[in-house]
Amino acid sequence: MTAPDDKPIYIYFRTDNQKSVNLWLDSNESTGWFNDEGSTENDAEFFSAYFEGDNYTIMKLGEFEPGQNIRLRMTVANEYTIVRNFFFYSFNDELFQQDIDTLKNNQWQIEDGWKDNKIKGTITAEEGQIMLTSIPWEDGYTEEIRNAAGKKYSKFMDTIIGDGWRVKVDGKRVEPVKVLDAFVGIKLEPGEHTVELKYTPPGWTFGVIAFVFGVAALVLFFMYDKKNNKVLIAIAREKKMGVSEQKPKVKKLSSEDKVAELKKNSALKSDAKDEKNEKIEDKQKPKQKTSDSSEEDSEKKSEDNDSDE
User: Which of 109, 115, 144, 182 has its CA 20 to 30 A from that of 7?
Assistant: First the structure.
């Protein structure tokens, strides 16, 4: 091919059989590729692999002088391949900038106070225009939510399980459309509109409702148990009758009261000691009497012996 101008050239090939191939580029007119005598593979430089992994995409071939001859050769790396289409593109910066300026004329004027999950603003649309956002498209935005019987859910169920991005135009909910097979778009009628986008994490609404019902069930169970639990009823009855145990009150003593208490305790200890001594003395007195009587008996016996003699 011949370069029409000095603008960048891009390539894209389509295939139904993704087998790796190698691309060889030769843009030097002095090589044998551009002579009638023939050419060899050594005249070209390796450009890139294609059809596998990240290489299966639009590639920039390069920038060339106007009228320069370019030759791109493809060689099979593994077994074989089938190429359906060959696309060569030229990128025009001026036309691209004109399109960008046109899009900037009708930008979405976002209001202050926007959040990550809620955006609101005004936009003016013309006939046949679609509002394009930078929000990535996810499958399920426009799919109808149906139950097992094939019928649509009610609005209540749609509110519970219909999480994700919700779009409202002038206060009315609308369904988004897929743009460029990648982004979320919104169809608008000609004129100025207020567009609001709100995101709810999947399962958030259902989780909040389940939490509220769980707390309500817990409160009802507590109230029922309080009225019907025999143990709790008996404890409440005892408290009402004043039978419940009361903690002993601890009286705080002043320093003078503490001294008096110590004196009282010491006096009690001394009285107890005297009483103990008296008991010991009482125990010892009978022993002395028995010893005195034994001495008297021995004296009497000795006197009787003397008289017998």
Answer: 182
Helix/strand/coil for 101:
helix
pLDDT tens digit string along 146-198?
A: 334 444 444 444 444 445 778 899 999 888 888 888 888 899 999 999 999 88
Closest CA to 13 of 40, 43, 47, 38: 47
How many other β-carbons are positioned within 10 Å of the β-carbon of residue 168?
A: 15
Number of other CB atoms surrounding residue 236 within 10 Å: 13
- The string over 211-223, giving b where at least 16 C-beta atoms fall within 10 Å of a residue's C-beta and e elsewhere, is eeeeeeeeeeeee
Q: Where do the domains of the chain lie?
A: 9-91, 96-202, 207-241
Beta-bridged to residue 300, according to DSSP, are: none
| Other C-beta atoms lying within 10 Å of the C-beta of residue 226 | 11
CA 174 vs. chain centroid, Å, equals: 29
Contact criterion met (CB below 8 Å) for 190 and 181: no
DSSP-assigned beta bridge partners for residue 123: 193
Separation between Cα atoms, residue 27 and residue 43, nearest integer Å = 10
17: tokens are 């059989």
Q: Which two tokens stand for residue 93?
A: 């910066």
Q: Is the pTM of this model over 0.85?
A: no
Backbone angles phi, psi at 104, to 5 degrees: -70, -20
Alpha helices in the chain (DSSP H): 93-105, 155-161, 204-228, 230-241, 255-308
CA-atom Rg of the chain in angstroms: 53
**Residue carrying the six token digits 């369904």:** 175
28-46 per-position pLDDT tens digit: 754 444 444 444 445 678 8
The strand pairing partners of 285, in sequence order, are none
Give the residue from 28, 24, 6, 13 showing the smallest Cα distance to 90.
6
